[in-house]
Predict the 3D structure of the following.
Amino acid sequence: MARDGVASATLPILSTDTNAATGFRFRDSAFMENRDIPVHRWIPWIAGFSATFVEDCMTAFLPRRSDRRSCVLDPFAGVGTTLVAAIAAGHDAVGFEINPYAALACKVKVDSARLNVALLESYCTQYAVFSKNGSRTCPGTRPIEFQTRIPFFSDSIERQVFGFQSFLASIKDRTVADIFRLAFGAVMVSFSNYSYEPSLCSRPGAGKPLIDDADVHGCILKRLQNMAHDIRWLQDDLKGKPLPGVGKVHEMSFMESRSVLAPASVDLVVTSPPYMNNYHYVRSTRPQMFWLGLVSQRAALRKLEHENIGKYWQTVRDAEPVALEFRHPELEDLLRDMRATRASEGAYGGPGWANYVATYLNDSFKFLSVLKPSLARGGTVVIVIGNSIIQGHEIKLEQTLADMAIQLGYELVAVETLRTKRVGASITKSTVRRGGKSQATLHESAVIIRKR
């Protein structure tokens, strides 16, 4: 329908079984599946999609090209699922990621097909010997500006961490050093006094005991050995196949991508922007960023918060009312109603959450605007997104993104329902978020659009 000259998409909704636009059936998109897939399983992550889903998108939507290798883009690369799947299939891949820890994971995974695995295994052997000889007596210091309410590591564990850092400093090969850093980042919370629930919180706060001691080196070595095994498997699997594609990871916001991404160079985009659930990626990866030396000052974290799509509720709740930067009367009505919900609570009620929603929507519109010039004619974009329920108001983001795309001149191919249920109780039941009751349920969809 249309209202005041603003197009609203009549969505061609597809079932979870068959994509009517291609006659293709998509496999499970849930990120949990990656935990069993070599290379993809290295880093636990809060959200995203499966490697098999990316493979299905490439089969369904990637055109055959004779002038160059196809290019697959992920503007919100996370820990690299899209990039690794594209490279393994022989396509070039480009990713953008502002979180330095996630960007490190991307870079290590992207380089794994060409890594000297024998050198990695040699360093693993050296580390195993080191861990048994004096590794608990190495001096070290905590990151100066990394502060927590209770000690992040117990004394015994911290001494072992200092030992790991001492060995890490002795590794001369940068690629191998990055694998060691990533292995540590992947397991460090497991022997800390904190836990993912799914956001990072203290173990006592989650009803769990503190960890006084643990085999830190054994834990890191196990992850390193799994990574070396996966790299050897990947390289053996690629033998006799076309050369893997070339991957490039840009540690920067996609909103600034025009400085490095050539116009009309992208054939397929498979991505999942941060959902409108206020999951704080910066805070939840703060330990990895500080202990791996990826940031040294809290000011760097604030910069990342402002570069994140939609910012965070904590960063925009106290601002003056944020208006939409594009025309959409239905959303304007929704924001008006949200601002009136629990208005007496101010930033902690509807007014603060309406600012977050409006900021997220403005950033989403900007993202689609920035993306379009980089697409080749006929280039397809697959955006995995979930709806949200804030202050009792449902925001149908699949519908909203479709509306935005039509306004910007994209062709709407389809919206496919991927999951009819998903976890997300914190956004609907928290006392500062729930507002009134809503009959809506959380689900997940793929918005599929194309450049004409």
Remarks:
- The two ends are 21 Å apart (CA to CA).
- The chain has 15 helices and 14 strands.
